[in-house]
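User: My instructor asked us to take a sequence, write out its structure as tokens, and then describe one feature of it. I'm not sure where to start. Here is the sequence I was given:
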Amino acid sequence: METIKLYYSIGEVARELDLKDSQIRHWEKEIQVLKPKKKANGKRAFTEKDIEVLKMIKLLVKDKGYTLEGANRELLNKRRSILNKMEVVERLKNIRSFLVSLKA
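Assistant: Let's start with the prediction itself. The structure tokens for your sequence are:
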């Protein structure tokens, strides 16, 4: 039986999202909705919700070309819409992978 993790370290999150730790820390300072918990030792503890927010930031900044200020505004005003778009993009990627494997 696989155990479900409640919290992830910044290193685990960075590897999963192909980002640098420093980039995540910078985004945390600039994006109001990104607020990971901090342990007593000062280390960040990211939840699934935090990872979802980081994915949205990455989509807006890296893929769509938003500034951090613009991404922050979008997340504050249109979070649900962005999440829906991310889900569509993920489904399309899965379909593409499936079609490529069929072709091979």
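For the description part of your assignment, you could build on this observation: Residues 68-103 form the longest helix (36 residues). Try explaining in your own words what that tells you about the chain.
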